[in-house]
Amino acid sequence: MAQPGRDDNTSGVTLADTNPAAAPGATAAGADEAKTKYPKGIVLGPDGKPPTSCRTCTSSTFWASMGKTPKTKGSAATATAPSATNGLPADCPPDVERLGNSSWTLLHSIAATYPENPSPAQKDDLRGFMRTFSRLYPCWVCAEDFQSYIKKDEVRVEGRQEFGNWLCMAHNEVNRKLGKKEFDCSRWEERWRTGWKDGRCD
Fold this sequence. Notes:
By secondary structure, this protein is mainly alpha-helical. 46% of the residues lie in helices and 2% in strands. The chain has helices at 28-37, 60-65, 77-80, 96-113, 120-136, 140-152, 160-177, 188-194; strands spanning 14-15, 43-44. The chain has a two-stranded antiparallel ribbon with strand order 1-2. Helix 4 (96-113) runs antiparallel to helix 7 and helix 5 (120-136) packs antiparallel against helix 6. The longest helix has 18 residues, at 96-113.
């Protein structure tokens, strides 16, 4: 589930700060326009332009830079308070960053509760869920990237440790593409299942 800011172009999707001409259907003139018109980090669609109708494919910083910041009209303070993830109020449709963070939380939580010795049916369920998740993920760029990852490195469903480690490695691949720090996968259970040894989660 790669997100804007990634530094590769494996799924044919382009970032405004990388190679706009590589987007399917983009022309050389369109590439020049994309280079100068769009801010760094915006994912360009197949036509070489930002997906204006897909909030889950675009960062809230892009919308802010385009003068489309969300407006609040006296709704409850809890509903309009910005989230910890980005500057959008919590009751707005998620942007790509909020969607990604929430999705990783869900997936790691599934790994944390997956059985150590799953039945054949549970293995099939997890394999099917991950395949379906990668197809239905709302950010098409991220979905294609995750589908490619699953084809390259099949989901490991033999038990909690195998799946948890596989998922952590998948998450780290996205972190690398985004220029983020990698997580120490030997500590995934502390982070997602048991809580940190220093007791701060108790």
